[in-house]
Amino acid sequence: MSRKSSRRFRELGTSQPPADSRVVLRRAVVMGGSIAGLLAARVLSEHATEVVIIERDDLEATVAGRPGAPQSTQVHALLDGGRVQMDRWFPGFSRDLIAAGAVLSRDDAIRMYVNGTVKAPASDEMINASRPFLEVHVRARTLSLPNVHFIRAQVRDLAFTGGRVSGVRCTLAGEPADEIKSMAADLVVDAMGRSSRLSDWLERAGLQRPEMRRIGIDLNYATAVFRRGCDSHGATSIQAIVLPQGGRRAGVSALTAVEGDRWTMLLAGFADDRPTNDPEDFWERCRRLPPVFAEVADKCQMIGPVATYRQADSRRRDFHLIRNLPAGLVAVGDAVASFNPVYGQGMSSAALHASCLSAYLRSVTSLAKPARDYFELVRVVVDAAWQTSTLNDLALPHVNGPYPRGYRIARRISDLILRASIVDTEMNQRFLQVAHMRTHPNDLIRPGTLFRAARVTRSQRSRQRVAS
């Protein structure tokens, strides 16, 4: 199973030209104008005469961040695995982002600290930009397609015909809530995020709710924006991880250069460690981190207030387990799974979900049956991201499960690989392949990788004993 998952993950990450044979739809409806919804609409534009995106937010008035995406003010990362998919669906997307002001971080400009020690250098690159900036560019590309349209409305329910989803029922913006309009569709996509009401609608129709799995992480964020201009010693993307050992509080901090000649700095704690919106508290926390954080906080001008955010849990909805799953329905993005955001997997997972949708639509000639093959593909992506994030989250002192089978062995292997990646460039390169969602986590448990990790850590211990 592990080899199969790794192979399917690699296949999804490969830019493949559309097949000649494909299912043809009259209308597809996407519920939600998030990045996940926009990417789904892009895929559907190759299969449907008309694609309608239904979004309740006024997108023109929310270029600084949508109410439906309260995390917009926080640091975001477009991992390289997601960037590859963005370029697949929007050729030249990365080039256009950089030309518009996004920052390309490459090799030595990317720095990661673990408990204050900088990790071994590795070849890597990523694009740094704010979430609103990225979303505006994805939206512009998607809505420029001639068969994709946007409607500002709120979906109230699904429509069913003969046991399949046949459309949506919604209220148009500015109209009374009880004025319900119906819109027929051959395929409906749920891109309504963590707060999706799809489970309630399925249950109301007499169908099974998808099983919800949660892991309580109690994550607390604070992000501040600074004017660039002070010295960062050549780095443009910096992450500092503090592991919960020896009485230390676990934490994650990030400093990224973004468009508009700005820094975005994020400080995150868990449980009762709650960064506040007080600038003095923010500055004090910076001084506990690698010096570059304090240098930026001390020497650069803070722009605007400190923004806080809290996420109580990671969650996933297992649509593939629904016994009576209706035809004509799929889900993407956070509506399927929402992970601890410190790992930056959200947008890249959404991009890979779009590739799952493309692979599914290119493999069928009719949507008369439930999209089980699609949800099995999505499961590969969700399992990969879930494995990466929750394995680390379950090691936090305040997180009490549920622990998967084999957790203790998996935890020991994960710790071994992390220790080796701190001091060994090759191990760090393999680590980053998984962290950036370019390869499946199972690739890290291949015998050759485990042997190298064990050899590196033994050598490191020997050098420490000699030094002491």
* Spatial gap, N to C terminus: 45 Å
Portion of residues in beta strands equals 25-35%
Oligomer: single chain
Q: How many whole angstroms does the radius of gyration measure?
A: 22 Å
Q: Which sequence of strands runs across the widest sheet?
A: 5-4-12-13-14-11-15-17
Summarize the structure.
By secondary structure, this protein is of the alpha/beta class. The protein contains 13 helices and 17 strands.
Description:
The chain is an alpha/beta fold and about 475 residues long. The protein has 13 helices and 17 strands. The strands form 3 sheets. It has an 8-stranded mixed β-sheet with strand order 5-4-12-13-14-11-15-17, with helices on both faces. The chain has a 7-stranded mixed β-sheet with strand order 9-8-7-2-1-10-16, covered by helices on one side. Strands 3-6 form a two-stranded antiparallel sheet. A hairpin with a 2-residue loop joins β7 and β8 (about 165-170). The model has no long low-confidence stretch (mean pLDDT about 90).
What is the secondary structure topology, with strand pairs?
Blueprint: H1 2-12, E1 25-31, H2 35-44, E2 48-55, H3 80-89, H4 93-99, E3 103-106, E4 110-114, E5 117-118, E6 125-128, H5 131-143, E7 148-161, E8 164-172, E9 181-184, E10 187-190, H6 198-204, E11 211-227, E12 237-242, E13 251-258, E14 262-270, H7 279-286, H8 291-299, E15 302-318, E16 329-331, E17 337-338, H9 346-361, H10 372-393, H11 407-423, H12 425-435, H13 447-467
